């Protein structure tokens, strides 16, 4: 290759972002400016190798103040833009994501250890779609009719933005969770401060320059930092009017306590422990394939993961045996990206947490290890995909969210018992029922106390459909036009006029 060809290749790969090691952006976005954090510097780790990728300094107290002040100033203008203007910006963000698809998927792969081909094929298109959905949804909202509800007075209802929103995200799908939080908040006319997880800021920081070009200064600010530092400063700030969190239940509880002081609106998407009810008449091949995929996708670091199976006695043994084989065949930690199906856990701490859940479970004489149940011996924070059978309803492993590649099986005889057990949980995010009898499926779906129930599938999301929990899984909806309502307030305008005309 000539020097000219080489530099042309370099230029082309720069344009498409198709370099093997993407640029690691470390600058925060405050008031339209990309700036280095002035707080504590934290290492960002590649969980597939355990190596430090880069060090990023979190926002200082003064930088958090500056970001909130910028969002507060920007609200005056942004809240008065039309839905069409905001839709144009959201569509531009979707285009910017697609243009950088290679770079962003590489960053997700590096920062989370995800197989690159999955990040490229799943995370990036889903993220762009969320921005496109909200661009359309904000232009065709519906509401109550204006009219004379009191003689001589015309009433109408407005939906207005809440104000400055602090959006706080977890690490399992960094860019997609950012889209779930940013798109509806901006579409509804709010300004915001987005805080990614301290573990996974790389993809949103890479998008920050594009966001700074598309949006007026201050409309979106991106601050890195820990929950106890930057997170809690945002939650306590009097000028922040709403806090939106996707995270752990305990984090949600802490945020509620702090937010109560300033009576903020909160939107909480918390943990899950999805029950999977498998009836005797289910298509077992479909169940095996479904749980192999949706119980272990992203190494089970998914709040909707199909992790708590209730298997009816007639199919229990066959299901355990066939699922055990299928789970043992899951591929990970291989050299060639295409060969991998699941990533490692996000940190050694998370891996050890998963390992200790399994260790305690196997300390119970009635619980049987079908497959897995060990830390992977090579580099990275991998844990073997694990299936445990013989679990009982009151076992810790059945009751608590593990957030790892661990699925339990509990046998049942009577369907009513399975529904009761499924509902006997602090969580209420997602569930599924597997049967070839639609009549039965609809009855079970009606009785399950979960934000979502799938029939003969699991973990399928659509931008148009609401996603969110009941009970301690939180409240408020992500995705769908329901979330536009969560990020806006209803106001009544009433005009007095004569009645004699
Ligand atoms: P986490 O609660 O530890 O952290 C989430 C975010 O909250 C991070 O950005 C963190 O810095 C911040 N935070 C922590 N303490 C805070 C505080 N006191 N004040 C303000 N911010 C604070 O959760 P995680 O470990 O990153 O993610 C895993 C959890 O997220 C799991 O429980 C999972 O079920 C849940 N989750 C839920 C959904 C959903 O849609 N319901 C989706 C994905 C993940």
From TrEMBL:
Active site: 269
Key words of the record: Oxidoreductase
TM segment ranges: none
Pfam families: Aldedh
Region (Disordered): 1-20
UniProt keyword Cell inner membrane, yes or no: no
Keyword Oxidoreductase tagged: yes
Domain Aldehyde dehydrogenase: 43-493
Gene3D superfamilies to which the protein is assigned, alphabetical: Aldehyde Dehydrogenase, Chain A, domain 1, Aldehyde Dehydrogenase, Chain A, domain 2
Family: Belongs to the aldehyde dehydrogenase family.
Protein name: Gamma-aminobutyraldehyde dehydrogenase
């Amino acid at each position: 290759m000539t020097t000219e060809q080489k530099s042309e290749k370099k230029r082309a790969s720069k344009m498409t972002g198709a370099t093997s090691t993407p640029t690691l952006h470390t600058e925060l976005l405050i008031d339209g400016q990309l700036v280095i954090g002035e707080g504590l510097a934290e290492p960002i780790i590649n969980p597939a190798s355990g190596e430090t990728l880069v060090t990023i300094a979190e926002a200082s107290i003064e930088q958090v103040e500056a970001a909130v002040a910028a969002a507060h100033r920007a609200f005056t203008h942004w809240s008065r833009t039309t839905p069409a203007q905001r839709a144009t910006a959201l569509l531009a963000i979707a285009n910017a994501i697609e243009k950088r698809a290679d770079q962003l998927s590489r960053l997700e792969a590096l920062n989370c250890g995800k197989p690159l081909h999955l990040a490229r094929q799943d995370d990036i298109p889903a993220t762009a779609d969320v921005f496109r959905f909200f661009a359309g949804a904000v232009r065709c909202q519906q509401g109550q009719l204006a009219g004379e509800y009191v003689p001589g007075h015309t009433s109408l209802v407005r939906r207005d933005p809440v104000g400055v929103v602090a959006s706080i995200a977890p690490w399992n799908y960094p860019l997609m969770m950012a889209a779930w939080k940013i798109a509806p908040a901006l579409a509804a006319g709010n300004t915001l401060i987005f805080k990614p997880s301290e573990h996974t800021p790389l993809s949103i920081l890479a998008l920050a320059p594009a966001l700074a070009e598309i949006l007026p200064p201050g409309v979106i600010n991106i601050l890195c930092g820990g929950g106890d530092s930057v997170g809690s400063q945002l939650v306590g700030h009097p000028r922040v009017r709403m806090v939106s969190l996707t995270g752990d239940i305990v984090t949600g509880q802490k945020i509620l306590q702090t937010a109560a002081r300033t009576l903020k609106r909160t939107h909480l998407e918390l943990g899950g422990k999805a029950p999977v009810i498998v009836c005797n008449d289910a298509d077992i091949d479909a169940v095996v394939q479904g749980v192999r995929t949706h119980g272990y996708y992203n190494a089970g670091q998914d709040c909707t993961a199909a992790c708590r199976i209730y298997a009816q006695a007639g199919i229990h043994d066959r299901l355990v045996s066939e699922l055990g084989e299928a789970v043992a065949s899951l591929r990970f930690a291989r050299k060639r990206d295409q060969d991998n199906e699941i990533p490692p856990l996000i940190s050694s701490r998370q891996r050890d947490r998963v390992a200790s859940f399994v260790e305690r479970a196997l300390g119970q004489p009635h619980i049987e290890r079908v497959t897995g149940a060990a830390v992977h011996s090579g580099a990275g924070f991998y844990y073997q995909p694990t299936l445990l059978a013989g679990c009982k309803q009151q076992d810790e492993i059945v009751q608590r969210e593990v957030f790892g590649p661990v699925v339990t099986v509990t046998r049942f005889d009577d369907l009513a018992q399975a529904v009761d057990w499924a509902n006997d949980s602090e969580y209420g995010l997602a569930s599924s029922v597997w049967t070839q009898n639609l009549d039965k499926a609809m009855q079970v779906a009606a009785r399950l106390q979960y934000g979502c129930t799938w029939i003969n599938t699991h973990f399928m999301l659509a931008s148009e459909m609401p996603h969110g929990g009941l009970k301690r899984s939180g409240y408020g909806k992500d995705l769908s036009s329901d979330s536009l309502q969560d990020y806006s307030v209803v106001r009544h305008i009433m005009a007095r006029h004569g009645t004699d005309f």
